[in-house]
Automatic annotation (TrEMBL), chain A:
Protein name per the record: Phenylacetic acid degradation protein
InterPro entries per record: PaaB, PaaB_sf
Pfam families: PaaB
TrEMBL record, chain B:
GO cellular component terms, A-Z: cytosol
GO molecular function: phenylacetyl-CoA 1,2-epoxidase activity
Organism field: Deinococcus indicus
Gene Ontology biological process terms in this record: phenylacetate catabolic process
Pfam short name (any one): PaaA_PaaC
Identification of the protein by name: 1,2-phenylacetyl-CoA epoxidase subunit A
Length: 196, 324
């Protein structure tokens, strides 16, 4: 892949999509992105931005240029996405399953062997025909935190002790809010978004 | 005779009625619009404007409170304030990401902030005079922000909605730590009570104003509502904010600086007239600390240049080594 040149410190670095795993045996989920010059910088920035609270055991970062994303609507007008070139090998597949209120985009759901990005997208579409978005990227593009207990401890444990960041740490005054809600003076979530 | 602009109709030349009907039907079904989907150019423009302003507000919002970190009265309060300011930086990052999915670049957005072209919430141009302001900002300003952001968490654009859900879950801590602090001072010594009351006197009206102009004077609301970006009007969100906060402030023993404030027969708290001249003067930077805030942001940007240069040099070196 070609590396753009950046003439000054005021020009942005490449964007990396960040995937966070909340607990062992849970899928990595796309949480957002960071800008970084190199893989280590990307992982450190991802931790600072997305792991200021507990619940993380692993972070992955993938350069935006290495990711192919599509929605069903996009594929109705842009078939060429299925011909996107790329190296042959193992590809990760992420899918978005619901429109419910959420703080994550796709869940990574497994891998496929593909001849390129477009082929991986085609396979993802066959495996998961009824989802709201697909994402694929090659395994070789992933940079990740180490899985050994020492790394997990030093990277992710400090957030656990900072209980003052949790709202449960503070007492509640004003029980009236519940009463207001019942009286219809404090509308909560729209009914269509309940249950997320 | 003048033709209506895209900002009024939502339709940009080149877009068809069919495209708009399909798009609006998706929103009516409660679907989220994702980055690759077709969307009206005006939807994209309005979202970039709103999300980048929102991101700038998070970033500038670090300044009034950051000034107080070194003067926090205890280690506990200091760690809380540091975590809160750090959160605001993170929230700016989430939001810049959401705007980037629409094609805006980080560089352009930062430039628009530093040049004064882009706006941020007027609330951050007010000075923080005492330590109690830190608590009152948490209680009122973050309280008002949460009301607005909870609404936006349900908006039709997927990346913005997801950033809002993440922000709201963290922002609740900001609100509660402020409330806890002010309640403690309101029950404390006469000096502490006076400090809490003084902070309320200065922050009440700015917090009311930060939820935006009255519905009748809100120029962008039409298409924003139609396209599921704003699910409630400014006045509705303001009413929710008042209904939640007035009883709690009164319960804490504080006096709200609005002689006309009263509860109507439906149980809604009704406020007196708002002085919008001040709001617009602060937005335009004629009043308040706009110059100082942008100066501090520019200084932070300039002072951080060596870090960016060092990281770039490391990146270049790694690449050169890899190429050998």
């Amino acid at each position: 892949m070609t590396q753009p040149q950046y003439p000054s410190s005021d020009t942005q670095w490449p964007r990396w999509e960040v995937f966070k795993q909340d607990a062992p045996n849970r899928p990595h989920q796309a949480v957002g992105s960071v800008h970084a010059g190199d893989p280590q910088h990307a992982l450190l920035t991802a931790r600072n931005v997305f792991v200021r609270r507990p619940a993380a055991v692993s972070l992955w970062c993938v350069r935006e240029d290495d990711i192919l994303t599509a929605t069903p609507e996009e594929l109705t007008t842009n078939f060429a996405l299925l011909d996107t070139p790329g190296e042959a090998g193992t590809y990760h597949v992420g899918v978005k399953r619901t429109n419910k209120r959420s703080m994550t985009f796709v869940d990574l759901s497994g891998t496929v062997q593909a001849s390129g990005s477009g082929d991986a997208l085609r396979q993802a579409q066959v495996m998961h025909p009824d989802v709201l978005a697909w994402m694929v990227f090659p395994e070789t593009a992933v940079v990740r935190t180490d899985e050994d207990p020492g790394t997990v401890e030093s990277w992710f444990a400090p957030a656990k002790d900072k209980t003052y960041k949790q709202q449960q740490h503070y007492g509640v005054i004003g029980r009236h809010v519940g009463e207001l809600k019942r009286a219809g003076l404090m509308p909560g979530r729209a009914a269509s978004e309940e249950g997320a | 005779m003048t033709h209506p602009t895209p900002a009024q109709t939502g339709i940009t030349p080149g877009e068809t009625a069919e495209q708009h009907a399909h798009f609006e039907a998706r929103i009516a079904r409660g679907e989220k619009i994702e980055a690759g989907d077709w969307m009206p150019a005006e939807y994209r423009r309005q979202l970039i404007r709103m999300i980048s302003q929102h991101a700038h507000s998070e970033v500038v919002g670090m300044l009034p409170e950051g000034e107080w970190i070194t003067r926090a009265p205890s280690l506990r309060r200091k760690t809380i304030l540091m975590a809160k300011v750090q959160d605001e930086a993170g929230h700016g990052q989430y939001l810049y990401h959401a705007a980037e999915t629409l094609g805006a670049t980080r560089e352009d957005m930062l430039q628009a902030l530093l040049s004064g072209k882009a706006k941020y919430s007027s609330i951050f141009n007010y000075p923080t005079h005492s330590w109690a302001d830190v608590g009152m900002i948490g209680w009122l300003v973050d309280g008002a922000a949460i009301k607005n952001q909870t609404m936006l968490a349900g908006c039709s654009y997927g990346p913005y909605s997801r950033a809002m859900v993440r922000i709201c879950s963290e922002e609740t801590f900001h609100h509660k730590q402020g409330k806890e602090m002010i309640v403690a001072y309101a029950q404390g010594t006469p000096q502490q009570r006076a400090m809490a009351q003084d902070a309320l006197n200065r922050w009440w009206w700015p917090a009311m104003m930060m939820l935006g102009p009255h519905d009748a004077d809100s120029p962008n609301s039409g298409v924003l509502t139609r396209w599921g970006i704003k699910l409630k009007s400014n006045d509705e969100v303001r009413q929710e904010f008042i209904n939640e906060h007035v009883p709690e402030l009164l319960e804490a023993g504080l006096t709200i600086p609005d002689p006309d404030l009263h509860q109507d027969e439906h149980g809604n708290w009704r406020h007196g007239p708002i002085h919008w001249d001040e709001f617009w003067a602060v937005i335009r930077g004629e009043q308040g600390l706009n110059k100082e805030r942008l100066g501090a942001r520019q200084a932070a940007h300039d002072d951080g240049a060596w870090v960016r240069d060092a990281l770039q040099a490391y990146t270049d070196r790694q690449r050169a080594v890899a190429a050998d």
